Amino acid sequence: MSDQPSGQPSDVPGVPPGDLPKDLPGDLLLRSAGPADLDAVLAFWKAAAEGTSISDDREGVERLVARDPESLLLAEAGGELVGTVIAGFDGWRCHLYRLAVHPDHRRRGIGSALLAAAEERFVRLGGRRGDAMVLRRNERAQHAWRAAGYAPEEQWRRWVKPLAE
Fold first, then answer.
1. 3-class SS at 35?
2. pLDDT-based confidence at residue 165 (cuts at 50, 70, 90)
3. DSSP output for 31-49
4. Contact present, 59 and 32 (Cβ < 8 Å)
5. Whose CA is closest to 70, among 117, 9, 28?
6. Helix, strand counts (H, E) of the chain
7. Which carries the bigger pLDDT value, residue 3 or residue 80?
8. HSE (CB half, 13 Å, CA atoms) of 165?
9. For residue 112, which phi and psi values (nearest 5 degrees)?
């Protein structure tokens, strides 16, 4: 991830200029989260993300960033956190979680920029297909994922078992 504001879409490392929206905020910065960002990320998710997870706590996000320091991508504009995505790669599959853009900053290309950066990361790591978990009831998110080229696979169903309380 770049340490410099993007300014122009071509400034996002590894992402071809044509793959990013043309109307990105001029001061958009995409970067990986560090330990100092985690409280802000958790507060941001409460305001901007839909649904909650058993892992939505400081300990869970610390574990994520410690295990894979480049997995939690942040978008900042004017020094403010405006978007996130978790781009997790386990060596076999590419998983996308917590794509969220602050309600006041939606429809400006920030989610697309985050996805482009996540997909570039996956390709660099050898990934071949990204998958996203999207709540059935979140129609806005379903539209956004479709617009980004993703499609549901109706033949699959997610099975979960909590391992801790």
1. helix
2. low
3. EE--GGGHHHHHHHHHHH-
4. no
5. 117
6. 4, 5
7. 80
8. 0
9. -65, -40
